[in-house]
Amino acid sequence: ISWIDLSKDTLDISDFEYWSQLCLRKFYPSTLIAKARLQVLNSSRLTKDHLLVVAGRVGSGKSETSTYLGERLSHPVIRTGELVRTLMNAPSIAEIGREEFQKRAFEFISGPNGPNRLAQAILRQVTNNGGRPCIVDGVRNLQTFEKLESLYHGGDIGLIYIQTPPDVAFDMYRAREAQGTLSFSYRDFLKVYDAPVESEITSLGRKAHAIVYNSFGMEAFRRTLDDFVSRNLKTPIAPVHVIELERVKVRS
After folding, report:
1. Which long-range CB contacts under 8 A does 62-65 form with residues at least 24 apart?
2. pLDDT tens for residues 207-241?
3. Smaller CB count within 10 Å for the chain: N or C?
4. Residue 20: how many other CB atoms lie within 10 Å
């Protein structure tokens, strides 16, 4: 334990545990710097010619990551939410609301053949795209990933997990889907964040071949993705454990 002179010192927020990070982001944002980080766990799975699955909690930035990687690698993006909606023959989220959609999706994926049906639907999309590698956005169920892994080209699949603190996820989700309205509370967000259909996502994180840390919002996060793509275009990512990028200023 030590005193910090916040009038003089700049702080790397990653040096603090989560509750301290909350306080520092809230009350002293101008003193903070951030190290955008990418942790590589299995470089052989992370190549341009592999199917890349992006997973993460609600509001983590996984869809933004999928879109970005698709554009940079010229890969089609497969949205699993749309596939699940089609398989369930359900209305869109805009029509029935996310909570109701999550409830129906959980019932579907918990069924005896749900994971297999979704994995097969993903593979059909790959075939429809000429069989070339794609970015798969939003796999939430461990069995779905394992089924996909067993069926696709001898398991040539890379799993990228987006790790985002809940408060940052809340801000990103509210900006995207609640349009920044003040009436959308953190309690409302937790109903979505902790829904049963989201319960296996941390298990996917433990199987990930790379973890991208989105701890400070999209500015620092995009720098991490830039590094990921630059190392991922033609060859496996360099076999290092932690890549620390240029420090960036956290905006208030």
Report:
1. 62/137, 62/138, 62/162, 63/137, 63/138, 64/218, 64/221, 65/160, 65/162, 65/212, 65/225
2. 999 998 887 767 667 777 877 777 654 444 333 33
3. N
4. 12
CA–CA gap between residue 69 and residue 50 (Å, rounded): 13
- Pick from 199, 202, 117: which is nearest to 162 by CA? 202
CB 148 within 8 A of CB 210: no
**List of residues 6+ apart from 52 with CB closer than 8 A:** 46, 69, 73, 75, 133, 134, 135, 136, 157, 158, 160
* Residues β-bridged to residue 89: none
pTM for this prediction: 0.82
Residue 54 has pLDDT above 50, yes or no: yes
CA distance 196 to 202: 12
- Predicted local distance difference test score (pLDDT) of residue 181: 59
- Per the structure block, which two tokens stand in for 31? 């003193």
For 170, the token pair is: 């809340």
Q: Kindly report, residue by residue over 82-119, the tens digit of the pLDDT.
A: 999 999 999 988 899 889 999 999 999 999 899 999 99
